[in-house]
Amino acid sequence: MSSPLADRIRPQSLEDCVGQQHLFSEGKILHRLLTSGNIPNMIFYGPSGTGKTTVANIAARLSGKKLYKLNATNASVADIKAITTDLGSMGNTEGVLLYLDEIQNFNKKQQQSLLEFIENGSVTLIASTTENPYFYIYNAILSRCTVFEFMPVDGTDIENAIKRAITLLEQEIGAAICIEPQALSHLSVSSAGDVRKALNALELCVHGAVLSKEGFVITLALAEQCTQKKAFRHDKDGDSHYDVISAFQKSLRGSDPDAAIHYLARLLTGGDLLIACRRLLVTAAEDVGLAYPQAIPIVKACVDSALQLGLPEARIPLAEATILLATAPKSNSAIMAIDAAMGDVATTDTGDVPMHLRDAHYGGAQKMGRGLTYQYPHNYPDHYVPQQYLPDKIKDTVYYQSGDNKHEQAFTQYWQQIKQKKEDTP
Asked: Which residues have a Cβ under 8 Å from the Cβ of 75 and sit 6 or more positions away?
C-alpha cells in the first residue's frame, strides 16, 4: 500500500517547506542552527500538520546523525533503552538524533529516562507536542531544550503545497489534474492551517474525480464533498481551548462586540456551552460591574434561558448577553476593592471588629461592652450617621475607588453631598 501523499511529498530541504517563516526563513535562528549542523535539544510545539516532523527529518540529515523515531503514545522506557544500547555501533559514529513525537504522553519517569543521554550529548532530542510544553513537559527536560512554536500554516502557503502535490500526482497517475481556483481555495481554507489535512483531501478529490479529455478535474463541488466540513481546532483539554476562552473574555472586556461574538461562536461550535455561560457571568461582575449593575440579572436570565434551551437555540440568548456586555460601560472597581481587602485579610494584622459593631443579640452582651455605642443609621436624616466601621488598625484604609462611569459617579456625588451636609451641621 502506498504511503500517504503528505509523506510522499515531504520536503527534503528548508527551502521546500511551507509556512513557519518566522522560524526557518534565512536569517532566523532555527535556520541558522539547522544549516550549521550543530543541532541542540529542541521542542517543537504546535498543531498537527504544521511541519514538525518534516523539520526533524531535515535536522537529522543536516547534522549527519542517525535518526530514531518514537511516538510517546505507544513507546516505553524499554524503547529508549534499546536506542541507547545501540549508541556505540558503527552506524552511530556521528551521534544519534531522537525524534520523540507527542512527548506530553510520557510520564515523569519516562521523560527522566532521557536526561542522562541528553546531558552527556550522546543523544540529541527533538520532541514535538501539540500541547503547551510549559504545562505538560517536566522542567528537567524543558531546561535542557529550546522551545520553538509552530503556527497554523497560512492559506497561501497551503495552496503552494497543494500545487506541488498535484505535480507529483500527475507524474504518478500519468494524467493531468485540473483544479478550479475556488476548489483550490476551499481545500486550503477548510484545512484550518493543517497541510496534511489539505493533502489528504486533495488525494481523495483525485480518486473521486472523473477522467475527462482534460484530465482529472477537481471542481468546487467535489472539493466540498471531500472535505465535508471545515476543520476546527478545538480540544476541550488543549491549549487552543484556553486561548479561545481567554480571547472571549478579553474581547468582552475590550468592548469589541464583533470579536466577542466570533469567539463565542468558536466556543459553541466546540460544544462549550457551560464555559461560555460562566465567562459571561464573570464578565458581568468583573468587567462591567458597577458601571451597569443591571448587567448581572440580565446576563443571568440569558444564561438560564440558554441552559434550558440547549444548543443550537442557546446561541441566541448567549449572543444577546455577549453583545450587551461588549457594548456596556466598564468598571472593575468592585473586583479591585475585594481583591485589595482579601489581600489585607490574608497578609496583614487588621485588628478586631470595633466593639460597637459586634453582635449584641445575646444575654450578657452589654456587660461585655458589645454594641453599646452603635448608632442605627435609619434613625438619622438621610439614613446616615458618621461612625467608624473598619477596625482601628486599618480605620483609614480605602478599598473602593469609584469608577469614572456615570452610574458610580452619580452615587459618589450623592454620598459626598450627604456627608458634607453632616459635617456642616452644628
From this structure: 100, 106
pLDDT at 179: 92
Contacts of 120 (CB under 8 A, 6+ apart): none
Provide the grid cell at 270.
Answer: 466546540
For residue 172, how many other CB atoms are within 10 A of its CB?
12
Alpha carbon distance 253, 326 (integer Å) = 7
Give me the pLDDT at residue 422, please: 81
**Beta carbons within 10 angstroms of residue 104's beta carbon:** 18
Helix (H, G, I), strand (E, B) or coil at 42: strand
The span from the CA of 200 to the CA of 206, in Å, is 10
Position 92 scores a pLDDT of 55
Q: Quote the CA–CA distance of 193 and 47 in Å, as a whole number.
A: 8
Q: 194 exposed, middle or buried (CB, 10 Å; 0-12, 13-18, 19+)?
A: buried
Rounded Cα–Cα distance for residues 188 and 160 (Å): 9
Percent of the chain with pLDDT over 90: 47
Q: What span, in angstroms and rounded, lies between the C-alpha atoms of 422 and 426? A: 8
- Check if the beta carbon of residue 45 is closer than 8 Å to that of residue 132: yes
Cite the DSSP H helix spans in 191-256.
Answer: 195-208, 220-227, 239-253
Threshold 0.85, pTM exceeds: no
Question: What residues does 148 pair with on adjacent strands?
Answer: 44
> Mean pLDDT in each 10-residue stretch from start to end of the chain (426 residues)?
81 85 84 85 90 88 85 86 69 75 87 83 87 86 90 89 92 91 90 89 90 88 81 55 90 95 91 91 96 96 93 94 96 95 93 90 81 91 92 94 92 91 77
Q: Is 111 helix (H, G, I), strand (E, B) or coil?
A: helix
Residue from 67, 48, 57, 46 nearest 16 by CA:
57
Supply φ then ψ for residue 44, to 5 degrees.
-100, 120
